[in-house]
Amino acid sequence: MVVTGAAGAVGSLVGQIAKIKGLRVIGIAGSDDKTDYITKELGFDAAINYKTTPDIAKAIAELAPNGVDIHFDNVGGEISDAVLANLNRYASHVWYAWVSWLAQSLADRRFRLGSPTLL
Known about the structure:
Structural class: alpha/beta
CATH architecture: 3-Layer(aba) Sandwich
Distance between the termini: 21 Å
Shape: globular
Helix content: 25-40%
Strand order of the largest sheet: 3-2-1-4-5
Largest sheet: 5 strands, parallel
């Protein structure tokens, strides 16, 4: 399972519940302090700092070599695209709060579902 916005209130709870249920959890967050928090304090299996990782899709592929079966998406945008590139066929993708999408002006908002990874 990959959780974006993993150090936030919702993402941290989702990751902890997934761990309780026995899932391998990879969290994506925006600082080393946050990635340390979710791995050392919350028990996530791995974490990616999206601000310092040049190729997020590649990092996900390295941490989940068999692909991603569940994605809890708090942010949308390019980070979501990187996870989508690694989703397995029939994977579950939960869209919760697309922070990057909501931050855009109404004229700039668009859904990113035309990605070849979903076709």
